[in-house]
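Record type: ASSEMBLY
Status: queued
Input:
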Amino acid sequence: MNRSVRFALAGVAVAACASVGLATPVWAAGSTSSTIGGRTLSEVKANAAAAISLRLSALDTAISAVNSNSWLTAGDKSTLLNTLDGDQSGLTALAPKIQADATIAVARSDSQSIYLTYRVFTLAIPQARLSAATDDITGGVLVRLNDAKSRLTALLSGSDSGKDTPAVQALMSDLANRIQSVTTATSGLSTSILALTPSEYDANYTVLASPRETLLNSRSNLIGARTDIETVVGDLK
Amino acid sequence: MTPGRVLAAGASALFAVLLVSGCGPTSHTAQPSVTSAPSQSSRTTTAGTVTSASENAGAGSAQGQSSEIAAIEQDVSQANSANSQVLTDLSAAAAAQAQNDSP
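Status: finished
Output:
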């Protein structure tokens, strides 16, 4: 994801909230209060440090998962690592800036960007994992099940043609339907997930719900497909 | 409840459903490590390249049939491994979304 776009859009989102009076902060720039929401400057800094640390740790885990995922396409892996690494770099640079902020208003304003600019938990990491799940299916599960289906089809039309009973035919038909359904459902899904931006998330907090539902349904279909294969194999033995 | 919290609650509920619905790794018959790389069968050169049974020498013999069955079972095992990774990734996404991500 283009990081500059994400930053710019996050800024627009903040401005939009302020313009409609949804979250006019008492700690707006220019405030001379020594506390905001009952918190001192040192407490704001401590909270920011903790929030950044939590996100850096989560990003570390997500990056490791992406790197060790053998089914991710090279393109998706590159895109995901670019996003996650960019978030890590941005948050790492933000941490000392907040600690050096001289006023509570500036510190609190900078702290906002920990959340609004990166959306680490609600978008970046879910994006990475949902995209990975899609590639797990398209590059892993579907390839193997299609291979198994081809082999079964060949056996049933060849050496095991005598075992191609109506029951077996029904299982093979169900297998083909499940594979086709998942193939259709996951086509282009990873690309659409990776294209989401923080601003799109801010405009629609359920933006990832549909892809997640698709993946859950696909996984269920794939388990059914596997069962079909195992049943037919049992009949052929 | 803020929209973010509604989403987080939904994600938590989803995770719970995943765990109790029998869709978890324990529903599989064979579970290779989800972090291990899928072994590439000698019968496939790249993902998606399939050597059909009809092209496989000896497929019409008893030995050929046995070999094909073994290959199919290997496919199922590898599919299980990948499908377990799907669950791992979906669960990780849900867990992340359950975190507070609002100022």
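Annotation: Residues 69-97 of chain B form one domain.
Annotation: The first helix of chain B runs from residue 3 to 20.
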